[in-house]
Amino acid sequence: MPDPIEQLAEAVRLFVANEGYDVAPNEVTEAVKGDPSLIPQNIYALILAHGYDEERVAISMAKGAEMLNTQMTGNGTAENGNGIADRVLKEIRVEDVQKFRDTLVVDEKPLPVQPLETFYELESPRL
Description:
Elements: H1 4-18, H2 25-32, H3 39-49, H4 54-72, E1 77-79, E2 85-87, H5 97-103
Antiparallel strand pairs: 1-2
């Protein structure tokens, strides 16, 4: 099993890069080590230290804090003693397949971003 701290550090490095901040990966890894409750403050201070706009960083951190909370205490997780949650698969025993299928929720059908009519030509078809 991979180390949960290293998994968390990788996720935070990816988040910081996706938000457009140019911060060295080893600096992000160091900010993640230690008390898990201080990770958001450490990352916030690290990004500000690189000269980024405080308001932009605050918006990014709000989004990141929500993602971090989901990772640390989400459905199907088990804490390993240091506050970091490992993913745990839930085993469900199915005795009656039809009853089990009835419990599943069907998502809404996907909708196109633009109406399909925008892709059709109204003129006669070209051959």
